[in-house]
Amino acid sequence: MSIYENAVRKPVTVILIFIGVVILGLFSLRYLPIDLYPEIDPPIVSIFTFYEGASAADIETNVTRILEDNLNTVSNLKELTSISKDNTSLVMLEFEWGTNLDEATNDIRDAIGRIESYLPEGVEKPIIFKFSTSMIPIMLLSATADESYPALSKILDEGIVNPLNRIEGVGAVSLSGGPEREIQVIVDPRKLEAYNISVEQIGAVIGQENLNLPAGDLDIGSYTIPIRIEGEFKVSKEIEHLVVGTFNGSPVKIADVATVKDTIAEMTIDERSNGRVGARIVIQKQSGANSVAIAREVKEKLPELMRQLPPDIKIDTIFDTSEFIENSINSLATTVLYAGIFVVLVVLFFLGRWRATFIIILTIPVSLIVSFIYLFVSGNTLNIISLSSLSIAIGMVVDDAIVVLENITRHIEKGSSPREAAIYGTNEVGLAVVATTLTVVAVFFPLTLIQGLSGIMFRQLGMIVTLVVIVSTLAALTLTPMLSSHMLRLMPPRKPGLSKAIFGTIEKWLEKLDRFYERLLKWAVHHKAFVMVGSAIIFIASISLVSVVGTEFIPPADNAHIEATVELPMNLRLEKTQELARQIEQIWQENYPEIEVISTSAGVADESNIFSAFGENGSHIINFNIRLSNSTERDRDIYLIGDLMRKDLSKIPIIKDFSVWPGGRGEMGSGAGNVEVIISGYDLDVTGALSEKIAERMENIEGLRDIDISREESKAAYQLVLDREKLGLHGLTTSAVASAVRNRINGLVATQYREGGDEYNVRVRFDEPFRKSVETIENIRVFNQRGEAVTIGELGHVEEYNAPPSIERRNRQRVITVTGSLYKASISDVVNQIKAAVDDIGIPQGVGVDIGGTAEDQQESFADLGLLLILIILLVYIVMASQFESLRSPFIIMFTLPFAFTGVFLALYITGTTLNLISLIGAVMLVGIVVKNGIVLVDYINLLRDRGLDLNEAVISGGKSRLRPVLMTTLTTILGMLPLAIGIGEGAEIWQPMGVAIIGGLTFSTLLTLVLMPVVYTMLGANRFKREQKRIAKLDKEIEA
Amino acid sequence: MKTVFIVYNQALTERVEHILDKLNIRGYSRWPQVQGRGSINGEPHQGTHTWPALNEAVLTVVEDAKVEELMTLLRRLNDKAEMQGLRAFIWDAEIGI
């Protein structure tokens, strides 16, 4: 017994199965985490190696190259890049998307294990570091304070960081830029000299005095009592009274040679929020946790936590990814809702029956909810991709139900009982319904096979639409006939009234349309040549539109977040940098009222920080993190504001270089794409000169911003050159001298002062005036074994030199990259201009130039999509050919395809949208959507021909009778896509090109093929008559005498 | 009016249909997949593993004038491939509704 027959006979089972599915779906929805994108972990593994004291060139030859040569054997490796800087080597391995990183990391560990012994002495163990999206902070808060500033770190640590860390799903809450308490023993070198005491002596005394030690147990009588020596400082003032030596018989106390300050550590970084001093609180989530829920809970907890803080501490949000996520998700949910309403209206408009409309509409929630079960089971999140997939699917899920219901209604009107009508009606169209679904599946399922970044983005889309459409077909084959058999009946003519007035008018109107189409078809089949040539001209003309429509990779979105970095001349003092930072903040706050929070950090976070190896840093760098009001509340988008900011920055003469990233750095889907010119060659001078020339040319290219050369400018440094002979004479070693200099300039951490469970450094160092010139270094006195003091000036001299720049390598070749971000320009134009510029400059011997960046990704993705398109067209043809059991019919239907692309280009051109990944995916989808109309039309014409109608007659009456179902399914798909194409709300604009492409392609191809396809049919279908004649002649032979 | 009962190997379906079309015989009832066995010779048509072939049966009521022509054509068809198996039987019919 067939599935629909069973369904009609067992209504209770069918209803309960679907209710069960809906309940499961709603249950899954409740537990689905919400996120912006599917989890995408970049397949990159980095290896840090520290080699104290080595220069960039040493690091390159002794560490980086050895590592690279061995890591190159790791499988699935796509690209190997490295940066060798002073003291550190950073090797980055980029893998193919979809590589199992755990396995890769194991391979890397093995490779490192093999070569560890070949690395020079003194190289620290290489650190393997995997980056994941959950490391991107979901919230960034800024804390500012006035009086409480010195204690800010401690207050925040206890009052905010720890409580927030306890929220479920929070991965890490960290504090940066807050002041750290430090006890400083500031020494006057002249007094030291007078008393003949060294910094090391002071340090040793402080370290030895600050001590608690259990000394054992005393047996007193019949008791055992422990004895302890308690020397730890109770208050920091105690340090002043320590005795460090004697002079002329009287004790010398620390207070005699130094001042003790309980203060905050010298800052190498200056954190400000809206110009006020403060710290930053970074909140990261655990992998797989729900960003939105975490952010909500953090926001709920904050006011409560803030009440317990001193009143002058203020906490602001710099950015909150959850806000953008929530807005995007909400706007997409509205989109789905609107799409649903449109679909209902279309169905009601054409059918004019409430019950029928209800039956069809019921398939929407049933099939959409299944996608939640899929997302939940596969461990995915509710994100932009999954929700927009629903939005895309919503117009398609009703198609099958429409076809089935229309046929059932026809049977009922002929006089069948609803029950039999449901069974036979479904039987008649069952195969066609399955075939149209298969064509859609043939398009969407291969989407799950795309490789690379776009593959990860579109896997969910492909799976969800495939699933939803299959379920909708199942519902159309079971739920729809079952409900029809119970709810539909032969309708008596409408009684006069409002409904008759409305639906009667619509009906008349539709009949007029039918007649108009009939006349049009009659005209068309008699003017075949005209129709064919006209269509060909339209198609060829549309091809020329391709050059007018710009191309880009992924359309940028406005997430109300701008990041900027300003680079000042090297070696600039932090105070100067701060001053300029304040100046820029002021300009921006005056010019852009849209800015809500400006958070600025100037200087180095922490030299020993693993992250500092990633980017540029130094006292001359200022980083801005700016949050603007919501995109719906302002007129200027982040790209325009970013551009204006660039103009502001270019007016300040001291600024050496700057970059502005609207949307933030490294955030996928937002932020503009970039172009990278990779110059490879061994000679650093040659490549350096070439990179500057290319950068200069790129500055002049319209549509490129933020031109940046990857190699840093060489940095001025002082070097102490010691004379070994003199060292030997005085009984000193380089290490003794070096540590002496370090202890005086950088300071000697003598001990940890404990208070309230926290430890603070006690640092002994020279007073500031004695750390300001080269002479002070030469005047430093070093003590030898015999206790004699020698000044460093006697041992060597201080030289100024330029530290070699960092050395960047890619695939084991030295490279320099010049990058520029794209602004309102198509990538292909820019790449061509750069190519022309490079040709013009001329490439020196032994140097290679490549263009990469987003351009590279784009070419890869576009090539993938091209292959995919061919694969999908083949698959769709196969599916249709097997359905019609004919090679000709699908060929006729395929005539729709070129005009779908014509429609896409036309729509993109009219709306000024670019040809990008998203609109291209839309075009690929069209292949499956557009042929549905053809299947409905050609199938019915074939049927009429089988029933013996003559060719032209079959084409005209077939076309006329299929006009309404074709218009109906097309309109539901188009209107379902409309909210997406208009792009209401935040985040939805990413999907606009897809909606535009599908609407344009579907509208145009439907209009044109309603005329063209019947004409093509009459041309190719004439053969059928000859074939039939042949068949009859053959049969005649069999019964001949 | 005569009733003609034609029973034949499934393989001949198309040809029998063609004969009916040729003689403008519109009305008929047909049983697809009928099991049968010839009285004298030939392989049984049972639809089993041993005898996989199957018959089809057509019952048509035609005017007396057409019977002769129908039988001629059917006989010719049978002569071309005798081992396929085709039999036709004629009896009188009265007009019902």
TrEMBL record, chain A:
Keywords of the record: Membrane, Transmembrane, Transmembrane helix
Record's protein name: Heavy metal efflux pump, CzcA family/hydrophobe/amphiphile efflux-1 (HAE1) family protein
Transmembrane segments: 12-32, 332-351, 358-377, 383-408, 429-449, 461-484, 529-549, 861-879, 891-911, 917-944, 965-984, 996-1020
PANTHER family the UniProt entry points to: PTHR32063, SWARMING MOTILITY PROTEIN SWRC (PTHR32063:SF0)
One Pfam family, short name: ACR_tran
S-adenosyl-L-methionine recorded as keyword: no
Any one GO CC term of the record: plasma membrane
GO molecular function: xenobiotic transmembrane transporter activity
InterPro entries noted in UniProt: AcrB_DN_DC_subdom, Acrflvin-R
Endpoints of the signal sequence: none
Species of provenance: Thermophagus xiamenensis
Keyword Kinase: no
From TrEMBL, chain B:
GO biological process: regulation of nitrogen utilization
Taxonomic superkingdom: Bacteria
Protein name in the entry: Nitrogen regulatory protein P-II family
InterPro entries, sorted: N-reg_PII (IPR002187), N-reg_PII-like_a/b (IPR011322), N-reg_PII/ATP_PRibTrfase_C (IPR015867)
Record GO terms (molecular function): enzyme regulator activity
Organism taxonomic ancestry: Bacteria, Pseudomonadati, Bacteroidota, Bacteroidia, Marinilabiliales
